[in-house]
Prior knowledge:
The structure is a single chain. By secondary structure, the chain is α/β, with parallel strands linked by helices. The strands form 3 sheets. The protein has an 8-stranded parallel beta barrel, surrounded by 5 helices. It has helices at about 30-40, 55-60, 80-85, 90-100, 115-120, 135-145, 160-170, 195-205, 220-225, 255-270, 280-290; strands spanning about 5, 10, 15-20, 45-50, 105-110, 125-130, 150-155, 175-180, 210-215, 230-235, 290-295, 310. It has 2 domains: about 10-270, Aldolase class I (TIM Barrel, Alpha-Beta Barrel); about 280-345, Antifreeze-like/N-acetylneuraminic acid synthase C-terminal domain (Type Iii Antifreeze Protein Isoform Hplc 12, Alpha-Beta Complex), CATH 3.90.1210. Strand 6, helix 6 (about 135-145) and strand 7 form a beta-alpha-beta unit.
Amino acid sequence: MPINLENKVLGPDEKALLIAEVSANHDKDLEQALALVDIAADTGWDCLKLQTYSADSLTVRSEHASMQIDAVWGKTNLHELYQSACMPMEFHKPLFDRARERNLLPFTSIYDPRDLDFIEELGCSLYKIASFELTFDALLATVAQTGKPIILSTGMATLPEIEHALEVLDKNNASVVILLHCCSSYPAPIDQINLNAMLNIGNTFKREVGYSDHTVGSLAALTAASMGAVAIEKHFTNDATRQGPDHRFSATPEIMRQIAEGIEQIHQLKGSSEKRTTDAELVSREKGRRSAFALHALSAGHTITEQDFRFVRPNAGIPANTDLPLVGQKLTTNVEAGHPIRYSDIAS
């Protein structure tokens, strides 16, 4: 069944829901963040997604060797990275408000159960659980108890881990859970995306599936939509050369527009699951199918023989797949040479 989310609809027969992920690209500048809202709207996306966390909700200050990270992130310590990347809490309301003004559905990824009351006050219609939090049972249980739809990313996860997460959510009365296939690498290499795994998790767990895209470019997102993804999520920026941990692999406005336009076309191509003769095919059906045509003039009362007709194009007479054997039938009217033999021309 389709899921109604404020002014958006998510479901297998709908256009893939496009989720524009702000991530750390707000740069702790509200005007920059508001500009991203406008880009998401102007390029034809459906949703604006934030991330709600602080450095202290994700980790602790420590110089332990396990806290060290690659300098490509702009920092070499996890706490320092999250401190630089987290969005100020006071940005949430103006961003939710601007998103709704621009006909976008705003929501957020939640990382700490202690933030739930704050987010609930924003009127958040659904929640995202990031791939990194798929094994955080306490968070899953808390969010499930809101009764709101949940989008669960599955990057890095095995099937048993996804199964466990769903068991925790279901046990805590989660409503609808949509699974997002994901490769949690930034940027993600094309040869490790494995979009067939998206179909696998959908079939295994009988849930709607989508795709969270961390590749550079539009190909992976468009391919996932063509394979049946009900939602596509992607980080985006107004300038991939800006300083910050996420700009370098985020989609530019040009890529955002390519994805939105491509997915609209994919939705048109996928169309209805009903197999029927379309309006565009009516002429072809009439001109290209075979039917019975007289090879020479035939008189009323004549008994048809194999030498009297052929099944040829167009489809103007008795069709070639008729159950009625024409040989041996008696004509009730005259049929001119090169004219179709119709059911009305033979005795009933």
